[in-house]
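Figure 6 in text form: structure in, sequence out.
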């Protein structure tokens, strides 16, 4: 019998479920503080417009979206403050690490993001960067910032869940 290879579960090679099982998805970077700092309301998948040396750095896992945010100008969306490390072998044709990168979205998605930011006071943050079928994609989310008491409640819930799991594990 033919055995399917088991996916590598390391942080860099974590696979996402996809509507098309033949397309491989590899998570390159995540914004781990996003769920703690914000209520994530609506999520979108956007392509990234990159230079050659940038995509090579991203494939090597050399990207950080910890301080990144999304800016919507008119009919364009931009990924701001994302750090893509320079590609070592690119020499003088290298890219600027923190340059604004255009997001590839449909007009109706950009319009929805722009209206939500203006009318509802929401913000747009990147939550994941991944490679899907050889192309770099960004998962972005409309988010509302949490207050201090919301963050305390999140910490309390996490501790309760951890204690329950510990009790179930020790009880068995």
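Output sequence:
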């Amino acid at each position: 019998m033919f055995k399917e290879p088991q996916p590598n579960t390391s942080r860099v090679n974590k696979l996402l479920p996809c509507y098309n099982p033949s397309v491989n998805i590899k998570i390159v970077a995540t914004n781990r503080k996003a769920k703690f700092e914000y209520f994530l309301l609506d999520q979108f998948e956007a392509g990234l417009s990159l230079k050659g040396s940038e995509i090579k750095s991203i494939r090597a896992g050399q990207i950080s979206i910890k301080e990144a945010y999304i800016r919507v100008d008119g009919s364009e969306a931009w990924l701001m403050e994302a750090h893509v490390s320079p590609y070592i072998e690119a020499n003088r044709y290298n890219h600027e690490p923190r340059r604004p990168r255009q997001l590839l979205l449909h007009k109706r998605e950009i319009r929805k993001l722009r209206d939500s930011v203006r009318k509802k006071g929401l913000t747009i943050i990147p939550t994941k960067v991944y490679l899907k079928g050889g192309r770099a994609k960004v998962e972005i989310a409309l988010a509302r910032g949490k207050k201090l008491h919301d963050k305390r409640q999140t910490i309390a819930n996490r501790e309760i869940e951890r204690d329950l799991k510990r009790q179930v594990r020790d009880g068995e």
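Caption detail: Confidence is low (pLDDT under 50) at residues 7-13.
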